Amino acid sequence: MNEKEIFEIEQKLMANVYSKRTVAIVKGLGAKVWDINGNEYIDCMSGYGVALVGHSHPKVNEAIREQIEKLIVCHGSLYNYTRSKFLKKLVEILPKGLNKVFLSNSGSEAVECAIKLARRYSGKKEIIAFVGAFHGKTFGALSATWNKKYREPFEPLVPGFKHIPYGNLEDVEKAITDNTAGILVEPIQGEGGVRIPPDDFLNGLREICDKKNVLLIMDEVQTGFGRTGKMWACEHWKVIPDIICLGKAVAGGIPMGITAANETIMESFKVGEHSTTFGGNPLACAAGFATLNVITEENLPKKAKELGDYFKARLIEIKNKHKIVREVRGLGLMIGVECKFDVYNIIMGMLKRKILILDAGRNILRFLPPLVISKEQLDKVLEELDFVLKEEENARGID
């Protein structure tokens, strides 16, 4: 099958819900991927943050191969060695006190569970979320997501959600009522533009939640597992949530979602009130255990901080050369470059030069490379970005 045939089949048979790029990826290794024609790309998308330990990490691949030979399916109604091994490792690295876990298949499902859990535990209905938030596209998660282009076609959504300006503690406190179950927040907004909160914001939320007897729910689906230079982004502000939502990177590319809380909160769920057929299946747990080992043994959070500091500093140098760039922001290897115009041409220009990057809104470039990327690869990304930005400025007549 050639490239053209792949394009035609997916266009004809696959739901038209993705903004497609004209490249057919067939192989990946570390921070590189290859298309069907053998062209090599540096991957700063990593599957929207999934390939945190890199594509086809040998330790993850070996764990998957070994598990396939033993057992692939084991429902949560039965006990399983691989699952228990993964859970033990996971709880060892989770924020202190979050020692009870529900396993699902995606970040959206992790958020769905957190919403239900907050309502079940508190007996209250309202959830406070934030302007610019993205929590997923299933109905509960979508109700917490801000962008109207995702929400409006599917209204009415789940009732009981409020959206407050991100970073505004005064408005949060005013929005809380006797019926508020929880506050759902990304420690760094990803889809919303790689927005870092004011220094006092997350600590302020923790204080408000403690004072008002409201649960603090942290969505670390994109920021978790070392992406921002610490194992959990909430560690930058020394805040521990009551519930944490995880996904994306946890199983090295195999689908998994995680909702974790303390035992008291999680035990408010009764048998049968929340479950999922594939949650905690042995294949995902084997991949997850291997991925957690890679993250800790290779000290990837530290690497993310060091490479992220370097990359961000170099991006700021590029910003100072190009009038088209407004701001560079981020932590670790989660970095946004805000431009003064739509970034579509820049993303396509980088694709032509064999670099894969993301957007985060119409005018923001988002970089989520694997944490195993090399300094030399980042230098190549910087070199090509410098060229493409200059090209875009020339096309727009900007000197």
Strand order of the largest sheet: 4-10-9-8-7-5-6
Number of domains: 2
Q: In whole angstroms, how far apart are the ends?
A: 45 Å
Order of helices and strands: HEEEHHHEHEHHEHEHEEEHHHEEHEEEH
Q: So how many helices?
A: 14
CATH class of the largest domain: Alpha Beta
* Strand runs, count: 15
Looking at the structure, what is the overall shape?
globular
Low-confidence stretches: none
Beta-sheet strand percentage? Answer: 15-25%
Task: Describe this structure as you would to a colleague.
The longest helix is centred in the C-terminal third of the chain and has 22 residues, at 300-321. The protein has two domains: 3-53 and 299-395, Aspartate Aminotransferase, domain 1, CATH 3.90.1150; 58-297, 3-Layer(aba) Sandwich (Aspartate Aminotransferase, domain 2). The mean pLDDT is 97. The chain has helices at 3-13, 46-49, 58-70, 81-93, 107-122, 139-144, 148-151, 169-175, 201-212, 263-266, 282-297, 300-321, 344-352, 375-395; strands spanning 25-29, 32-35, 40-43, 100-104, 126-130, 161-164, 180-185, 215-219, 243-246, 257-261, 325-331, 334-339, 355-356, 358-359, 364-367. The protein is globular. With 399 residues, the protein is α/β, with parallel strands linked by helices. The strands form three sheets. Strands 4-10-9-8-7-5-6 form a seven-stranded mixed sheet, sandwiched between helices. The chain has a four-stranded mixed sheet with strand order 1-2-3-13. The chain has a four-stranded antiparallel sheet with strand order 11-12-15-14, with helices on one face.
